[in-house]
Automatic annotation (TrEMBL):
<dbReference type="GO" id="GO:0010336">
    <property type="term" value="P:gibberellic acid homeostasis"/>
</dbReference>
<feature type="transmembrane region" description="Helical">
    <location>
        <begin position="530"/>
        <end position="548"/>
    </location>
</feature>
<feature type="transmembrane region" description="Helical">
    <location>
        <begin position="485"/>
        <end position="510"/>
    </location>
</feature>
<keyword id="KW-1133">Transmembrane helix</keyword>
<protein>
    <submittedName>
        <fullName>Protein nrt1 ptr family 3.1</fullName>
    </submittedName>
</protein>
<comment type="similarity">
    <text>Belongs to the major facilitator superfamily. Phosphate:H(+) symporter (TC 2.A.1.9) family.</text>
</comment>
<dbReference type="Pfam" id="PF00854">
    <property type="entry name" value="PTR2"/>
</dbReference>
<keyword id="KW-0812">Transmembrane</keyword>
<feature type="transmembrane region" description="Helical">
    <location>
        <begin position="131"/>
        <end position="157"/>
    </location>
</feature>
<keyword id="KW-0472">Membrane</keyword>
<comment type="similarity">
    <text>Belongs to the major facilitator superfamily. Proton-dependent oligopeptide transporter (POT/PTR) (TC 2.A.17) family.</text>
</comment>
<dbReference type="GO" id="GO:0022857">
    <property type="term" value="F:transmembrane transporter activity"/>
</dbReference>
<feature type="transmembrane region" description="Helical">
    <location>
        <begin position="21"/>
        <end position="46"/>
    </location>
</feature>
<feature type="transmembrane region" description="Helical">
    <location>
        <begin position="358"/>
        <end position="380"/>
    </location>
</feature>
<feature type="transmembrane region" description="Helical">
    <location>
        <begin position="400"/>
        <end position="421"/>
    </location>
</feature>
<feature type="transmembrane region" description="Helical">
    <location>
        <begin position="86"/>
        <end position="110"/>
    </location>
</feature>
<dbReference type="GO" id="GO:0005886">
    <property type="term" value="C:plasma membrane"/>
</dbReference>
Length: 579
């Protein structure tokens, strides 16, 4: 048996590494081309083709975005519990493909959308049946995303063996280049795909991403023999609940004087601590009662609803400690979400001619966000990190907490600038007598919007990648799909908060004569700049909250097996701050 296990472990270690990256990145490029090719221009599709009011269309998209970012919890549970990441990604991709096919058919078949109308006509809004087709397709893509998003990052990162010093340093670089590939495909989507949708047709514009998704599935499956597939370690949610129940049952017990008396069982924890065992921390001592051995407990065959190991208790502590940092990312997503709704509507009213014969699609303005993000990632990886490393001595230049703080600050500047740009746009509309003409093109260049888009791109390169690194690094190893799902749930919460904020502002700022900060039909008569500045104030408060949380954050301590040379191995305890 031992010989068979050794062979199995050896073959597992031989797999993975850089050789798998082309398959994973090719899958990510095609998948993101599909996702963003659908989403980037959707606000235009909903308002122009389905004739939905602006606020209803904006809330439909943010609700869909929120749902698509919430389903990763379900996908992570399935992957971590029994299916494994490879099969979860594969099945979820097929579900996503089904949703894309339905949406593409709705764009091709005239009976699945309302009739076209002229600019001076009152357009007929999509009926309940047509909206049902839309919602079914969006729901399928949301559930598909739920299996892809939490697993693909963790699956890619686990191709590098953390017990191998040569591969471990590649993990943080993986996050940078994962985001770079994702950004590159998004750049293609918001330029080529959006242009096709606006100028050739929605059927072809949706059909190309659908084909790209099919290619991504084929490429991903083709690389199966090379992947390092880790077995699922059982439901992480069950383990967390077991610790809570055990701690509650023993709530009246006195704490042990020495943490070394708390329950340890390496054999029991073997499957959930292959990269190292979590060691005891002094925070949240009330949870330590779950690891106190009493006369009623059987240490050799414990009832996990009464007795848990220190490692399992520390898993729960790690998740709880990540909570405040998780929450800080919500408001940044709320700010970022406006690029795909109100910023697109701003661009739609401005002069978008690059040359006389070529007009930039409004939804393609996010090309400036993506280009800036890609340039920032390259600059960060090739220039900033080597320079910072000389001063900090850290392999990754600065900690992911510092990286996130920089991103938060730049995002504040982005929404602050966006408000002033909207003032400038409305001044041009007033000067040329276009205030009452909501569909008229204001004679001001769309390139005035470039600063806010670029600042959002820089902010994302710092904050979003730092946030993703944080979740992967600080989560217990057996919960990394779940941890990545937490990253997406912060995006979900940010989208839902955007929906709530838009709805509340639209409701409470309505006045006589149809005045409103966020009017449905004429941005020129609104106060969009006040909405941007409201988000700026919320972001400043959030930045102060984040700095407080980061200052008092405790990094997870882990006992790892360190190889000193080829002939001798010894255990050592090190605090893996991974900063």
């Amino acid at each position: 048996m031992e010989v068979m296990k050794k062979k199995e472990n050896t073959s597992r270690k031989m797999k993975g590494g850089m050789i798998t990256m082309p398959f994973i990145f090719a899958n990510e490029i095609c998948e993101k081309l599909a996702v963003v090719g659908f989403g980037a221009n959707m606000i235009i599709y909903l308002t122009n083709e389905l004739h939905l009011p602006l606020t209803k269309a904006a809330n439909t998209l943010t609700n869909f975005g929120g749902t698509a970012s919430l389903t990763p919890l379900l996908g992570a549970f399935i992957a971590d519990t029994f299916a494994g990441r490879f099969w979860t990604i594969t099945i979820a991709s097929i579900i996503y493909q089904m949703g894309m096919i339905i949406l593409t058919l709705s764009a091709i078949l005239p009976q699945l959308r309302p009739p076209t109308c002229k600019s001076d006509e009152i357009c007929k809004e999509a009926n309940s049946g047509q909206l049902a087709i839309l919602y079914i397709s969006l729901l399928l893509t949301a559930f598909g995303s739920g299996g892809i998003r939490p697993c693909v990052v963790a699956f890619g990162a686990e191709q590098f063996d953390e017990t191998n010093p040569n591969q471990k340093t590649q993990t943080w670089k993986f996050f940078n280049w994962y985001y770079f590939c994702m950004g590159f495909s998004m750049l293609i989507a918001v330029t080529v795909i959006v242009y096709i949708q606006d100028n050739i047709g929605w059927g072809i514009g949706f059909g190309i991403p659908t084909i790209a998704m099919l290619i991504s599935i084929i490429v991903f499956i083709f690389g199966y023999p090379l992947y390092r597939n880790l077995d699922p370690a059982g439901s992480p949610f069950t383990r967390l609940l077991q610790v809570c129940v055990a701690a509650y049952k023993k709530r009246k017990l006195d704490m042990v004087s020495d943490p070394n008396f708390l329950y340890q069982n390496e054999e029991l924890d073997a499957d959930i601590s292959t990269a190292g065992k979590l060691v005891h921390t002094k925070q949240m001592k009330f949870l330590d009662r779950a690891a106190i051995v009493t006369e009623e407990d059987n240490p050799k065959s414990p009832n996990l609803w009464r007795l848990n190991t220190v490692h399992r208790v520390e898993e729960l502590k790690s998740v709880i400690r990540m909570g405040p940092i998780w929450a800080s990312g919500i408001i940044l997503i709320t700010a970022y979400a406006q690029q795909h709704t109100f910023s697109v509507q701003q661009a739609k009213t401005m002069d978008r001619h690059l040359i006389k014969s070529f007009e930039i699609p409004a939804a393609s303005m996010t090309v400036f966000t993506l280009t800036t993000m890609l340039c920032t990632i390259c600059f960060y990886d090739r220039v900033f990190v080597p320079i910072a490393r000389k001063f900090t001595g850290l392999e990754r230049g600065i900690s992911f907490l510092s990286r996130m703080a920089i991103g938060f600050f730049i995002s504040v500047l982005a929404t602050l600038v966006a408000g002033f740009i909207e003032v400038k746009r409305k001044e041009a509309a007033l000067t040329h007598g276009l205030i009452d003409q909501g569909k008229a093109i204001v004679p001001i260049s769309v390139f005035w919007l470039v600063p806010q888009y670029c600042l959002h791109g820089v902010a994302e390169a710092f904050m979003s990648i730092g946030h993703l690194e944080f979740f992967y690094d600080q989560a217990p190893e057996s919960m990394r799909s779940t941890a990545t799902a937490l990253f997406w749930t912060s995006i979900s919460a940010g989208n839902y908060l955007s929906t709530l904020l838009v709805s509340l502002v639209h409701k409470f700022t309505s006045g006589g004569g149809g005045s409103n900060w966020l009017p449905d039909n004429n941005l020129n008569k609104g106060k969009l700049e006040y909405f941007y500045w409201l988000i700026t104030i919320l972001q400043v408060i959030n930045l102060m909250y984040y700095l407080f949380c980061a200052k008092f954050y405790t990094f997870k301590p882990i006992q790892v097996q360190k190889t000193e040379d080829l002939d001798s191995k010894k255990d050592s305890i090190e605090l893996v701050h991974n900063v």
